[in-house]
Amino acid sequence: MIRPLQPLTMAAVLVEAFSETACAGNGAAVVLLDRPWADATLQAIAGSLNQSETAFLLPCQGHWLLRWFTPTCEVPLCGHATLAACLALGHWQRLPLGCSTSLHSRSGPLPVNLLSPCQAERAGQASIVLPSGGLSSAPVSEALQHYLECSLATRAEGYWHSPLGYRVVLLPPEAPLAAADLRAEPLPPSEAAGLVLMQLLSDSAALEVLGEPCRYQLRFLAPGLGIPEDPVTGSAHALVAPWWMERLGCERLGGWQCSHRPGGMVSARHSSGMIRLEGAGHLLWDGTLRLGSSDGYDLDGPTWASLLP
User: Fold this and answer.
1) Which of 55, 79, 212, 284 could, after both became Cys, cross-link 85 (CB 3.0–4.6 A)?
2) What's the pLDDT score for residue 163?
3) CB atoms < 10 A from the CB of 105, how many?
4) Which CATH number is 136-270 given?
């Protein structure tokens, strides 16, 4: 007698990260693995889920391993999907309220904390620690200045490169960043792996996140990663928050992302030299992924072993 093949299933959730309300912020799928699936399989799942990032969590040798995939490629760092992964662990009762753990990734171990009610402004709040990398001042290309003039009727006040590959532009406070119809297609190829457009918020009382006034806002375009515009980008805020802290003379501040699905986070310096981000998230759905049988899926994923401490 031939037994029918058992379907492969895995738990999955969709978390709207860096938002205190539903249907806002940045959606991230989080998938709980029971084995080290190969890259091609992870990429196929991320393509089907079609979020800006899908986070894959794998328990291994007493550690949590974490990887992130856009619909088209793997990325070395993703803030909002890390926050989503922390909240997902709480939802699956794998991380108690008020407890911390580290998620081991291509960017090293990332400490996360599922905040308890006495630590948080609201339920569904967590903190994550991300590397910042630093900014290196550079001249602005004429192609980028042309893009800014056409899209925002302004010019750059500052421009930086970063080890993460993101480019950062400082815009004047009066530039219509929130209202602009930014298109990723005309971006110069040098900016396609991630362009942060940021500006000072002259009226910091106008926006707040988790009770903290927002001192700056930004938008993030990354067509080279398959993301024309990312709604709320933790890695971008971790990158630029130290610059704003130094400029504004503070150790903690709120930052806003004025995209079509806006949201924000609170940044603070961490003892490790990295940046601690606090944010809220909304669990939009939870369920089970069904991949049929193991036939046609590669279960050998050697990349995972490289993440172990």
Assistant:
1) 55
2) 93
3) 21
4) 3.10.310.10
Alpha-carbon distance of 293 to 297, in angstroms, equals: 8
Pairing of strands 195-200, 167-170: parallel
- Can 9-131+282-307 and 136-270 be said to share one CATH topology? yes
Q: For the chain, which residues make up each domain, given as ranges?
A: 9-131+282-307, 136-270
C-beta separation of 85 from 30 below 8 A? yes
Q: Percentage of the chain with pLDDT > 70? A: 94
User: Residue 83 CA to chain centroid, in angstroms?
Assistant: 8
Q: How confident is the prediction for the chain on average, in pLDDT?
A: 93
Farthest-apart Cα atoms in the chain, separation:
74
The pLDDT tens digits for 44-66 are: 999 999 999 999 999 999 999 99
27 and 40 in contact (C-beta within 8 Å)? no
Indicate the pLDDT class of residue 3, thresholds 50, 70 and 90.
very low
Distance CA 32, CA 54 (A): 11
Residue 42 to residues 21, 23, 81, 105, 126: CA-CA distances in angstroms? 29, 26, 15, 15, 25
Cα distance between residue 190 and residue 279, in whole Å: 31
- If you average pLDDT over residues 252-257, what whole number do you get? 97
The Cα–Cα gap between 200 and 255 comes to 10
SS3 238: helix
Fold of 9-131+282-307: Diaminopimelate Epimerase; Chain A, domain 1 (3.10.310)
Residue 240: pLDDT band by 50, 70, 90 thresholds? very high
